[in-house]
Design goal:
By secondary structure, this protein is mainly alpha-helical. The protein is 83% helix and 0% strand. It contains 16 helices and no strands. It is elongated and about 135 Å long. The protein starts with a helix and ends with a helix.
Length: 357
């Protein structure tokens, strides 16, 4: 064999080695890439599975929270209904045992309720004269309490106990409003405690068992304040959200009902409204300001028919009838220190020392 032939064999051997080494490394590289791809696919599948499990867990948690919230709402509703029924039962027992003649103010209001019951019984809803009579029949006080009593008089008769029965409705309004305030500001438990305790106030069950305007006024003012508070706590939502506009409209309607019960409702809600208006101007929250104006305008429009008809009497009554009669009955003057601190000094008597402490 020639040296040249040996060199060719050596060259072919080396070429074969190089080619085999190239195919080996290429196959190894392909296997590595395939393994990495399989590993990546496995990790991706594990990640998707973990995300699916997390989503299922989140959904289960949300469903659990919804069920818990629904169960809490049911408990709250049942508790409020039970408290309301107990309150109505106790009031009915007291009225059955109490045979005293109504005092001066309840008797005066009972006459007003009988007058409005007669007007409604002979209603002519399309007559302007009839509506004028509705607004002028009571010049001193707005007519809502009297009008809300007319169904009870029509269904159950014309007696003092029947007229006081309208407080069954206003107790329900008060309970819901107090519970709503407590829940909005604190928790459902606080709301239930507050609703239950407010019925234990001595001043409340005195007013609730007689035909006064103050108890319905308290119910409507509390409901209006709850809606105003609930509207304010939703200030973090979008300023143009439908919910906030509906809350502003609802507040205006309830505020109007409070004014139509007794015009002094303005004294309790004027300062919160002014404060919120200034706050809206300061922070340039124009949508919030417009909603406040809308609610106040609705209340004003609801009060307008009665106030426009009786504004002259109201001005004279404010400085003569109301103030003078209170002084004759022994109440302190409105310009005295005793007059300014009257309600503070009577707070223990109104809600009792145990509840005050």
């Amino acid at each position: 064999m020639s040296p040249h032939h040996g060199n060719i064999e050596t060259w072919l051997y080396e070429a074969k080695r190089v080619i085999l080494r190239h195919f080996y490394h290429d196959a190894k590289k392909r296997m590595g890439n395939y393994s990495q791809k399989q590993e990546a696919q496995g990790q991706e599948a594990q990640g998707q599975e973990a995300q699916g499990q997390e989503a299922q867990g989140q959904e289960a948690s949300n469903n659990g929270a919804c069920e818990k919230g629904a169960r809490r709402n049911r408990v709250a509703v049942i508790t409020l209904v039970v408290v309301w029924v107990l309150s109505v039962g106790v009031d009915r027992v007291w009225l059955a045992l109490d045979q005293l003649v109504p005092s001066w103010d309840p008797a005066d209001h009972l006459i007003g309720a009988l007058n409005y019951a007669w007007m409604v019984r002979n209603a002519d809803w399309l007559s302007a004269d009839w509506w004028h009579g509705i607004w002028t029949l009571s010049s001193k006080y707005p007519p809502l309490l009297y009008l809300s009593t007319t169904p009870f008089i029509r269904w159950f008769g014309s007696s003092a106990d029947v007229a006081v029965g309208v407080n069954v409705f206003y107790t329900a309004v008060l309970l819901c409003a107090v519970y709503g305030l407590g829940r909005s500001l604190f928790s459902s438990t606080v709301g239930l405690w507050a609703a239950g305790l407010c019925l234990l106030f001595p001043q409340f069950y005195v007013l609730r068992s007689q035909y006064f305007m103050d108890y319905p006024l308290t119910a409507w003012v509390t409901a209006a304040f709850f809606l105003l508070t609930y509207w304010k706590t939703r200030s973090s939502t979008h300023p143009f959200s439908l919910q906030r506009w509906l809350l502003a409209i609802a507040f205006g309607i309830v505020f109007g009902l409070a004014l139509l019960t007794k015009q002094t409702a303005l004294m309790f809600l004027a300062i919160p409204l002014i404060w919120l208006g200034i706050q809206s101007l300061w922070h340039r929250q124009w949508s919030q300001l417009v909603q406040l104006i809308l609610g106040s305008a609705i209340a004003g429009l609801m009060m307008l028919p009665w106030s426009r008809t009786n504004w002259v009497f109201q001005i004279s009554a404010a400085f003569s009838s109301n103030t003078r009669s209170a002084e004759i009955e022994g109440d302190p003057s409105a310009l005295s220190v005793e007059g300014w601190t009257f309600y503070i000094s009577h707070l223990p008597k109104a809600i009792s020392y145990p509840l005050l402490i």
